[in-house]
Amino acid sequence: MKHNKMIIAAVAACIVLSSATIGAQSWKRSLGKLKQGVEQVTRQSKPNTTRQSGDVQVPEWHEERAQKRTSGLPAAVDTVIEHLRYRLYPNDRNAVFMGVDDFLFQETETVEILSHVKYGSVRCAVTRTDQDALKGETAHTLVIPTTLKEIGPYAFAYMQNLKRVVIPSSVRTIKRGAFAGCTNLSSITIEPGVRLIEGTSFAGTGITSITIPNTVKDLQTYVFEDCKKLKTVKLPDGIKKIGECLFMGCESLTSVVVPPTVTEIGERAYYDCKSLSSVTLPEGLVKICDSAFSDTSLTSLVIPSTVMEMGTWAFFCHKLAKVTLPARFNDPMVLVDVFDNSSTKLFGTSEATLLQGFTFK
Question: Once rounded to an integer, what is the mean pLDDT over residues 321-338?
Answer without folding.
Answer: 95
